Amino acid sequence: MSTLTVDKDALAGAAEPAPRNRGRDRGPRRPAWKTGLLMGAVLATIAIFLVPLFWLFSSSMKPHQDIYSWPLRWLPRELTFENFTEAWGSAPFDRFFLNSIITTGVGTLLEITLAILCAYAFVFVDFRFKKIAFVLIIGSLMLPGHVTLIVNYITVANLGWLNSYAGLILPGIASAFAMFLLFQYMRTIDKDILQAAEIDGAGHIRRMLTIVVPLSSPMILTATLIVMVGKWNEYVWPLIVTSTADMRTLPIGLLFLRSQEGYSNWGVIMAGAVFVSLPMLILFFLAQKRIIGGLAAGAMK
Amino acid sequence: MSLAVRTPRPGQQAPAGSDTKGSSAGPSAPQAPPRRSEARRRSPQRRRRVRRDALLFGALIAPNLIAIIVFSYYPALYNIGLSFFEWDFVSPSPEWVGLGNYTDLFTDASFGQILMNTLIFTGVSVIGSLVLGLLLGSVLATKVPFTGFAQTMAFAPHMLPGAAVGILWLFMFDPNYGLSRWAFSLFGADSPAWTTTSDWSLWAITIAYTWQRLGFVTVICYTAILDLPKDLYEAAALDGAHGWKLFRHLTLPLLSPITFFLSITGIISAAQAFDIISIMTSGGPGTSSSTLSWMVYEEAFQKFDIGTASAAATVLLVILLIITYVQVRYGDKKVNYDS
């Protein structure tokens, strides 16, 4: 009896100090100079990442003469949105935005739907050759996407999908990583709830929609965010498959803008880069715990 | 609907039912081994249920599986086939050249340079981001003030499109108006023309790519360090291990599964890096910053030499499959001090 309580305490003790304050109670308190040194290192870390980002945003809002000046001007003397209007005018950014939103939105919706259906089947539907199908799908994670470009281009051309939304979206909807995340999560769902629903007469589709999907919604959200970022940032496929400016997505628009402006108008080019980056940065700052958590879970299995 | 509702019920109970039947029949009947198949034969409901589940399973995974086969497996295989032909995307009959494309590749001096570039780009970015990431991750794991903010800032570049990262670094490397001029002027030197001279272009794309990947590696290392078993550290502290010693002999070995994973996935994604290269240098000047992944694109979609492009893609495929094999084969050997 007593061993049992001791065990329980030890368990609670191990589980309780969430990773958050683990560092703090390790060993004796750190001397002040060490904390100072470490804080210096942390600030250096921040600088490594923040300075280029700051440079991106500040340059996009600098007037022309502040960019082309020496010594370098870190802070703009006045903030201007000229670069943004000029970038918007020199390339069809409205189309780029629209195309990016459509391909990302529809593509993500389709991919997550496929992932949910597939993960549900693997967890809850019996089938003798499940393992083979699972290995086939997960195995595709190991195929480097870059080697499929040429043949996918041929396939899409044969289907008559070049320079169309179908051609942009459909080759990318197959889901292995998101499927795997959802599969791992759905496995933890208590099967008793589903059995109860089954006895109440709910078929598979109803059980999936009314029980499994709502219960998995945290992971569905995480997977959606990760897939979405990937699709928004997609570069090589849209570059290959589109051929007219009105079908280009934002990252390709950036290439377009660069070749148009050359190296003589950095402010405008940085404004274009802000157009492309800002939606993802906002998404990241709103949902960073989910995104980092999902990607870290993928890394540590 | 009512029929569909009724059928699963007996079906669901079938395994449990057959079990009890089996156990009650077990002692009396000697034919215990074949009881499973017999039970299956005896209950048509169960058979129907199995078939229905199989159909449902097929219907649920079909869209994903078909998409994966059509857009991943089939192209990877077909690409190998293409590498034995001479073709330009349009001529109606590709010309069979056997291993010609491969012998051309491996006798071409510029292909040697491209392989070398790929090796340098991949090696430097993977090792660089891993060493720096371990360092920064350990710093963040000490939980001094601002580490939360540092984690956010570190991860942010990983969220950005490679095109934006590439164009940002292109500007920073501008020898006249970029941050590079400022940084070199601190040492009284002039900035090199990073992206337009062949001595520097490979380093320009390598640095930009490493910067983008560094935050991801840092955050993964940081999370992994916080997950390490705390009691080992207490024991080590009692034994008088501190600082570098502790890191070298405890943290590093414990982290080895993660660092192994990060190096393998790092190699796989660096070898396919494309957007940063395309935006910053387009492989140039000459082939000075061309990697295998850029070459595949350039040969196929700018020179329309499908044979060469698919042969290069096959080389890339073989290299990456070997690396993946290494991971699958050796990746699960975790260092475990728990026993």
Detailed description of the structure:
The complex is a heterodimer of chains A (301) and B (339). Chain A is mostly helical. Chain A has one domain: MetI-like (MetI-like fold), CATH 1.10.3720.10. Chain A is 71% helix and 0% strand. In chain A, helix 5 runs antiparallel to helix 14 and helix 10 packs antiparallel against helix 11. The relative contact order of chain A is 0.12. Mean pLDDT of chain A is 86; it is low at 1-27. Chain B has 339 residues and is mainly α. Chain B has a domain at 103-330: Orthogonal Bundle (MetI-like fold), CATH 1.10.3720.10. Helix content of chain B is 73%, strand content 1%. Chain B has 15 helices and two strands. In chain B, strands 1-2 form a two-stranded antiparallel ribbon. In chain B, strand 1 and strand 2 (95-96) form a beta hairpin. In chain B, helix 4 (44-82) crosses helix 15 (306-330). The longest helix of chain B has 39 residues, at 44-82. Chain B is flat, with a radius of gyration of 29 Å. The two termini of chain B are 55 Å apart. Classes of the chains: A mainly alpha (301), B mainly alpha (339). At the A-B interface, helix 2, helix 5, helix 6, helix 7 and helix 10 of A face helix 2, helix 4, helix 6, helix 7 and helix 8 of B.
Fraction of residues in H or I helices of chain B: over 70%
Side-by-side strand order of the widest sheet of chain B: 1-2
Task: Return residue spans of chain A where pLDDT drops below 50 for at least 5 consecutive residues.
Answer: 1-27
Class based on secondary structure composition and strand pairing of chain B = mainly alpha
Number of strands of chain B: 2
Domain tally of chain A: 1
* SSE order of chain A, one letter for each helix or strand: HHHHHHHHHHHHHHH
**Would you count the extended β strands of chain A for me?**
0
Span of the ends, CA to CA of chain B: 55 Å
Unreliable segments of chain B (pLDDT under 50, ≥5 consecutive)? 1-34, 335-339
User: What is the subunit arrangement here?
Assistant: heterodimer
**Which topology of the domain at 103-330 in chain B does CATH recognise?**
MetI-like fold
**How many helices of chain B does DSSP assign?**
15
The CATH architecture of chain A would be Orthogonal Bundle
Biggest sheet descriptor of chain A: none
